[in-house]
């Protein structure tokens, strides 16, 4: 009976050799790539703790590994955002995370509105522009083409 359940749990999957030949990926990134490949049908439903358990690593290592895979274009940024979430992305400052939250609530925000809002806080225009550039560099402005265009 144990053999029968083990046989039904077995899966076949293909892994790109690029993950093993890329010198910038560590063993954790490679393992997460394998975990995602082996769960291809339901990889978008995996939680960080599921991936950590399957990859035998901590959640923090999973976040770093998925970020590395996204940076090297082995997984899409959209998949990275879905798996990790915006607030677990340690590349973003709190200012950038705050702007991102504001954009989600107000998707049609203009740069002029942001500058006007910055006058109501201790942050100056440069802080807002730096946070915008940070969001652009990390790929979070892809959902906001108007703001992405402004940062060019």
Describe the fold and architecture.
The protein is mainly alpha-helical. It has two domains: 2-87, no CATH class; 94-150, no CATH class. It has ten helices and no strands. Helix 5 (59-71) runs antiparallel to helix 6. The model has no long low-confidence stretch (mean pLDDT 84).
In brief, what are we looking at here?
The protein has 152 residues and is mainly alpha-helical. It has ten helices and no strands. Helix 7 (94-105) packs across helix 9 (125-137).
Task: Annotate the secondary structure layout.
Elements (H helix, E strand, L loop, with lengths): L1 H8 L8 H4 L5 H12 L9 H8 L3 H13 L5 H8 L9 H12 L5 H8 L6 H13 L7 H6 L2
Helix pairs in contact: 3-4, 3-5, 4-5, 5-6, 7-9
Structural class by secondary-structure content: mainly alpha
Low-confidence stretches: none
% residues in beta strands: under 5%
Helix content class: 55-70%
Report the count of strand segments.
0
Large-scale geometry: elongated
Question: In whole angstroms, how far apart are the ends?
Answer: 62 Å
Largest beta-sheet details: none
**Over all CA atoms, what is the radius of gyration?**
19 Å
What's the tally of helices?
A: 10
Q: Give the ordered list of helices and strands.
A: HHHHHHHHHH
Number of domains: 2
Mean pLDDT: 84
Give the tags.
152 residues; 10 helices; mainly alpha; elongated
């Amino acid at each position: 009976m144990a053999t029968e359940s083990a046989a039904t749990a077995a899966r076949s999957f293909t892994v790109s050799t690029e993950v093993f030949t890329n010198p910038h990926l560590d063993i954790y990134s490679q393992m997460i790539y394998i975990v995602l490949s082996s769960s291809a049908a339901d990889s978008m439903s995996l939680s960080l703790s599921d991936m950590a358990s399957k990859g035998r690593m901590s959640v923090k290592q999973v976040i770093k590994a998925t970020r590395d895979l996204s940076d090297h274009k082995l997984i899409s940024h959209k998949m990275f955002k879905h798996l990790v979430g915006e607030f677990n992305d340690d590349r973003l400052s709190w200012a950038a995370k705050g702007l991102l939250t504001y954009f989600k609530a107000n998707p049609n925000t203009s740069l002029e509105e942001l500058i006007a809002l910055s006058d109501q806080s201790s942050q100056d225009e440069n802080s807002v522009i730096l946070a915008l550039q940070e969001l652009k560099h990390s790929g979070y402005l892809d959902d906001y083409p108007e703001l992405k265009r402004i940062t060019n």
